[in-house]
Sequence to fold (360 residues):
Amino acid sequence: MVTHPIKAFPHPKLQVQRFRIVIAAGAEGLVLPAYSGSTLRGALGHALRDIACTAGKAQVCSGCFYQMICPVTMLFNPLVPDDRKGLFLKGQEIPAPFVLRPYTQGKSHYQRDETFEVEMTLFGKAMPFAPYLLSAFARSLERGLGKGLRSARVVEASVVNPFTKGSQSIYEGGQWNLATKLYLSAQDVKERVKKLLEYSTSTVQSHSSTHKKKEATTFIKITFKTPLRLKADKRLQDKLSATLLFRGLLRRLSVIAAYYGEQLWKIDFAKYIKKAEALQLREEAYTWTDWERYSSRQNAKMKLGGLMGYLILEGESDWIEELLPILLWGQLIHLGKATSFGLGDLEIEVFRTLAHSHEM
Fold:
C-alpha cells in the first residue's frame, strides 16, 4: 500500500465524457463486419450530416460558409484554430475529437432484439456537441447498418466513468436527457492512480522464468484490447517497446489537449521519455491482427491491421508512479491510428509481484 504522497504530475486541462449505448437489432436482425467500428463511424458521419448540415449535401465542407460553427466540421473535419496554427508538424492530422468503440467480441450476426454495446468518448471542446452526435447515432441505426442496411435501435444509454464504473442514465422511454455533469478530468486520473497503487499488492502471472524479484519495483501490464496501430519513422510497428508506447501516448495526449483542451499542455517530454527508456520489458505476448474496412471515399476495401495482446513492464516504483498517469490518459483517449473507429483501446493493470507459470 502507498504510504507517501503520490508524485506530482502536470496533467493537461482536458475533460473527457464517455457514453455507453446499448443497441438492439431490428426485425431483420443485423449482419456486421467482425470489427464494426468503421461501419458505425461511417453511418454516424452520414447521419450527422443529414441532421446538422445547413448548407446541403452538394456543399463540400472545405470552404463552406458555416464550417467554423458546424458540428460536422468540428467532429469529422476539425480545423486548426488560429491560435494553434504552426503548433505541430506541417501536414500533421488533427485527431478526431471522439472515439467510437463497439463491444461485439468479433460477433457478426445478431438476431431480432439481440443487443450489443458501443462506447462513445468525446474530448473537451467537442463535449457540447454530444446531443448532435447521439441523435445522429440513433438516426444512423434507424437508417440501417451493415449488410442489407438492416435497422437497429437504442434501448439504453448512459454516461459512464470507466475508472469507478459509475454511470448515469441519459435515455429512457425513447427520450434523451443530457442534464448530466458526469465527466472525467485530471482529478479522476489522479484518484485512479492512487487506487491502482493502493491495491497493487496482487500478483500477475508470468510465463517467463528469467525474472528475479527486486525490491521497490512495480509491474505494469498493458493490454491491447483492440488493434494498436503505432507508427515510427512513417512505418507501422510490429514490435513494441516502452519508449515507443510512451512517445505515442505523449504525442497523442499533447495534440488532443492542444486542440480540444482549455490550454496548451506544458510537459517535459524528454524527462518522461527518459523514465520510459529505463523500464524493463518483462514479457510480451501480442500478434498482428488484420481486419478490413470499406472506404467510401476511395471506393475500396482497406486493411487496417494492428497489434493485439499484452506486454508487462517493470520499473522502479517511484518512476512507475510518475508514468502511470500517462497510461491512464491513454486508456481514456486510446492510442495510435484509427482511434475514432475504436482502435488502440488499452487496459492498464498494476502489480507489485510477478509470479511464474511453473509456480502457479
